[in-house]
What does this fold into?
Amino acid sequence: MNLDMDSKVIHDEAVIFTDIEDKIVMLNVENGAYYDFDSIASHIWRKLEKPISVAQLCADLCEEFEVDADSFRADSLAFLDDLMARNLIIAC
It folds into this structure.
């Protein structure tokens, strides 16, 4: 499933994660895969604690980081699609 701007996403409950300094490390308990995120990806992950639309997520992040909205949306959708493919987030 590919996400679009109207999709709502949230962490998958099968993922255990913690903050280490300003980064997130996580384990998907269903498949045993371990991940770590850089500071920007970790910032995005923290925003997925409760359901949020991709459009709202992008709007919030564009405001916080003052980036070009069009390219940021495309990058964000690709990142979220990757998280979905790895069973780290779910659409709700």
The two ends are 12 Å apart (CA to CA). The first strand starts at residue 8 and ends at 11.
